[in-house]
Design goal:
alpha/beta, 9 strands, 51% helix, globular, binds coproporphyrinogen III
């Protein structure tokens, strides 16, 4: 059956006349209306776990721009929080976690309260579905186990991953206990989102690109493929997009082995390579540099058109190669939506 929603149709490999678009981190600090709600919410987690506020910020970019998908407002680090690891988001510092660095610490985490702690996200998803225009699809999401584990072990972002990598390379048996816990938690959480009304899922592996190819296979590709299998076993109809950022030629292994429906391409992937090597078997998403969106104007038109010319003929969802940055002028987002929607498969 052909979906009325262009993003879902693209993930079912139906190429419609128009290329659909949404943007990673489309709800966020570049929007003044987000900053106003964020200030009212107090803490960032309060914003994520207050359905009324999460619904409001999810819908803000949809009201402003003709985007073809919404993504539920939350964060990949709600999982460690729900497992019992203290997480906070500090102004100018990003996320701060009490680090997990031993099997004993892993054993103190528990999936028992996961569904209850994360139920406000499910409530927000159901409410967003009621408010979205009929052609706009709703994404649920989670982080992939390696990316989430790296924040859990390092205690935050902005590191060189030396501690997480040392654990993974030195003691793979014990590190795999953390990864397996995250496979369980993430699969359950994604299923909870689908049952609440999420129509598409995206799995963010933002730090996949820092590992060697064999470690990538073990800590990123296999656990992500297992999550995809578990979700598809219950909900085969829900398309899943995977974003293994920074992995270069290893995107081909994801296309062959991950079992997902779409791959989101980071900024460094050559679209002509992706069109030849990946798009015959997978829907592509991506891959405009978020800093090109900051620049806007002719530079943005030229780069976006290059991507459309190389990937637009096949199943494709226009997006960025990473999340929107806070200094992005909102009017550039409007111009990009117009450009993408005006482009036609020739
Ligand atoms: O609009 C959307 O895309 C939905 C919301 C969303 C957020 N985070 C909101 C957020 C999504 C999909 C994410 C994913 C996420 N979170 C990733 C994967 C994608 C990527 O960017 O690589 C990662 C690695 C995180 C972890 C995280 N959350 C970091 C490193 C930070 C601090 C850096 C920053 O951008 O501030 C966050 C905080 C965060 N998550 C903010 C938002 C809007 C900003 C916090 C604030 O408003 O105070």
């Amino acid at each position: 059956m052909t979906s009325e929603k262009p993003v879902i149709a693209a993930l079912q490999r139906q190429a419609k006349a128009m290329v659909p678009i949404w943007l990673m981190r489309q709800a966020g600090r570049y929007l003044p209306e987000y900053r106003a709600v964020r200030a009212r919410a107090g803490s960032f987690l309060e914003l994520c776990f207050t359905p009324e506020l999460a619904v409001e910020v999810t819908l803000q970019p949809i009201r402003r721009f003709p985007l073809d998908a919404a993504i539920i407002f939350s964060d990949i680090l709600v999982i460690p929080h729900a497992l019992g690891q203290p997480v906070s988001f500090e102004e100018g510092r990003g996320p701060v976690l009490e680090p997990i660095r031993s099997v004993t610490a892993v054993r103190n985490l528990s999936v028992e309260r996961l569904a209850t702690t994360l139920s406000p996200v499910a409530t927000a998803i159901a409410a967003v579905r009621r408010e979205l225009p009929p052609a706009v699809a709703l994404f649920g999401f989670a982080g992939a186990p390696w990316t989430v584990a790296s924040y859990m072990v390092e205690g935050g972002g902005g590191s060189d991953f030396a501690i997480a990598k040392a654990w993974a390379y030195r003691e793979p048996e014990s590190f795999s206990q953390l990864i397996e816990l995250l496979v369980d938690a993430t699969s359950a959480y994604l299923l909870q989102q689908v049952e609440a009304g999420a129509e598409i899922l995206q799995i963010f592996d933002s730090w996949a690109g820092v590992l060697s190819p064999s470690a990538l296979e073990r800590w990123c590709l296999q656990p992500t493929a297992e999550i995809v299998r578990r979700v598809k076993a219950k909900h085969p109809e829900v398309p899943i997009v995977v974003f293994p950022r920074g992995i270069g030629a290893s995107y081909a292994r994801y296309a062959a082995e991950c079992g997902c429906d779409g791959l989101s391409l980071d900024t460094a992937v050559a679209p002509e390579w992706a069109a030849a090597a990946l798009q015959p078997s997978m829907t592509m998403q991506g891959n405009l540099d978020p800093l090109v969106l900051v620049a806007g104007g002719d530079a943005m038109r030229a780069e976006a058109t290059r991507i459309l010319e190389r990937l637009g003929a096949g199943p494709f969802v226009f997006n960025l190669g990473h999340g929107i940055v806070p200094q992005t002028p909102p009017e550039h987002v409007a111009a990009l939506c117009e450009l993408v929607h005006d482009w036609r498969r020739g």
